[in-house]
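Appendix C reproduces, verbatim, an entry submitted by the partner laboratory led by Prof. M.T., so that reviewers can inspect both the input and the predicted structure.
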Amino acid sequence: MVDTGVEQDEMSFLLKITGNLAPICGKALQEISLKDSDFPAAALVVKYAQEIDKGNLATLAKIGPLLLQTMESLQMTPRARAVAAKAVNNAKSSNSKIDELRQRRLRKNTA
């Protein structure tokens, strides 16, 4: 699991003192490893959060799912991190045909 470095208490505190989602998203983005190719999505996360902060419930209903999708693309949600971890574990456990042949050859040569 990726640790964003932002404690739940700190996020709650930021939300209480600012009343805004954008500072929390910005802080979380600072704490994760981003590649250059991630920066457009990261900017979109902040923009969506800013729009939610200044909007009404209709804005939240429209932009909220977009914000969630963008955050998941950056693995900023527990679900996205779990899916990524599962994919890594599945990739590690599956051997290609060539790997299987190598393992058989090693077993044969060591026997």
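The chain has a mean pLDDT of 81. Additional entries are available on request from the coordinating office.
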